């Protein structure tokens, strides 16, 4: 068994379930890698808060990254409150008159999704000293997850090249695109070729470009040399400041979700019912869909005892996946899901009155801190 698995199993034994366990060490390892890219490529990297908003760790993140990006007012406020220094950027498909004054008081880079939004809100943003950018849609898909593909036909995200004709770019200082999802630098290279072909003529007049997220820089085998080369090319050719705003890469593989076996049901197959739910605690398992890894488990049939994991809800489809183990599972046994820092806590819900998992930090010195626990009120207070 790997040293990491041993550590996590020991930590999980000391904690209640369900519980997220976020490792400071693993998070910092990712941050160090990102920080090296920043230095070598001369770019600025922002945390996309929508993937990971555990602000307990914002002081650590601020040591390595340049700032944050937000999807709307609430994320922007969170960054403003808890990210010690740094730039706060924002992109929303549509801003509202109600939120915009506060947004421009805390975000200094505002990205607009259409010329109509730019015309409605641009003046106010410029007057507040904000740098304004446009999100483009290069209409170039590099991935198969349709729900995560902003370049799919009819996408509402980004301005297509044809829409630029006849529009003035006076006041616009940046271009933004976000089209990747869990991808390598090769997908960025291919996308940039299209961006340069269709939008290159505008780039000479810009001050900055934001390459969005979806760069899985901290995954083993990521081609960092190519990424650095691509960033340098943009800086040299167009004299641009280059931003990246990964979410997933920041906290990739840095967190776990510990759950307990509540019951074993033997119908056509063996099902273990857990106090963690796909629908409530890891909705990407159903949405994407994917099968998260579980510590010390194998693929179905690989080890002697195979189980389907299901949540403690009444949703028939609340199924996490099939896993096999060397020994039969027992009620009360802990099951530890991997890579549960990103797109988990931020997506949690209390469907079926399910309890929200606690959030624990495993510190560098080995100490465990329960950062947050939830109770009945967290369910009740959102409903009336
Ligand atoms: C989701 C998103 C990101 C972060 O994407 P990851 O896949 O988590 O790296 C960055 N920018 C925008 C505009 C996004 O929508």
From TrEMBL:
Top-rank taxon: Bacteria
Gene3D superfamilies in UniProt: Alanine racemase, Lyase, Ornithine Decarboxylase, Chain A, domain 1
CDD domains referenced in this protein's UniProt entry, alphabetically: PLPDE_III_CANSDC
Cofactor names: pyridoxal 5'-phosphate
Domain Orn/DAP/Arg decarboxylase 2 C-terminal positions: 201-340
One example GO MF annotation: diaminopimelate decarboxylase activity
Cited InterPro entries: Ala_racemase/Decarboxylase_C, De-COase2_C, Nsp_de-COase, PLP-binding_barrel
Keyword entries, A-Z: Decarboxylase, Lyase, Pyridoxal phosphate, Spermidine biosynthesis
Gene Ontology biological-process entries: lysine biosynthetic process via diaminopimelate; nor-spermidine biosynthetic process; spermidine biosynthetic process
Residues that hold substrate according to the record: 248, 284
Record NCBIfam families: nspC (TIGR01047)
Protein name as catalogued: Carboxynorspermidine decarboxylase
Source organism: Pectinatus cerevisiiphilus
């Amino acid at each position: 068994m790997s040293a990491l698995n041993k550590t996590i199993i020991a930590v999980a034994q000391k904690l209640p379930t369900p519980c997220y366990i976020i490792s400071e060490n693993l998070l910092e390892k990712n941050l160090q890698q990102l920080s090296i890219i920043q230095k070598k490529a001369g770019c600025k990297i922002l945390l996309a808060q929508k993937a990971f908003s555990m602000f307990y760790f914002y002081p650590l993140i601020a040591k390595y990254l340049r700032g944050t990006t937000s999807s709307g007012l609430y994320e922007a406020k969170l960054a403003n409150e808890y990210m010690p220094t740094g730039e706060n950027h924002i992109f929303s498909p549509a801003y509202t008159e109600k939120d915009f004054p506060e947004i421009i008081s805390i975000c200094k880079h505002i990205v607009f999704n259409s010329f109509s939004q730019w015309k409605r809100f641009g003046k106010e943003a410029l007057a507040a000293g904000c740098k304004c950018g446009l999100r483009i849609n290069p209409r170039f898909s590099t991935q198969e997850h349709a729900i995560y593909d902003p370049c799919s036909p009819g996408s509402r995200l980004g301005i297509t090249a044809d829409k630029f004709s006849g529009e003035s770019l006076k006041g616009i200082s940046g271009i933004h695109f976000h089209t990747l999802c869990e991808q390598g630098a090769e997908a960025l290279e291919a996308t940039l070729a299209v961006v340069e072909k269709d939008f290159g003529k505008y780039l000479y007049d810009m001050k900055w470009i934001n390459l969005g997220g979806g760069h899985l820089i901290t995954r083993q085998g990521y081609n960092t040399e190519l990424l650095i080369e691509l960033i340098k090319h943009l800086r040299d050719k167009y004299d641009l400041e280059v931003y990246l705003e990964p979410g997933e890469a920041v906290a990739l593989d840095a967190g776990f979700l510990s759950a307990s076996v509540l019951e074993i049901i033997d119908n056509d197959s063996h099902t273990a019912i857990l106090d963690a739910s796909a629908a409530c605690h890891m909705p990407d398992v159903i949405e994407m869909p994917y099968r998260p890894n579980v510590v010390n488990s194998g693929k179905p049939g690989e080890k002697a005892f195979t189980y389907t994991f299901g949540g403690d809800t009444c949703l028939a489809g609340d199924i996490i996946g099939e896993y096999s183990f060397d020994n039969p599972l027992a009620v009360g046994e802990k099951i530890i899901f991997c890579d549960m820092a990103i797109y988990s806590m931020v997506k949690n819900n209390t469907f079926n009155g399910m309890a929200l998992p606690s959030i624990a930090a495993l510190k560098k010195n080995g100490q465990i801190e329960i950062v947050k626990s939830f109770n009945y009120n967290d369910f009740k207070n959102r409903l009336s």
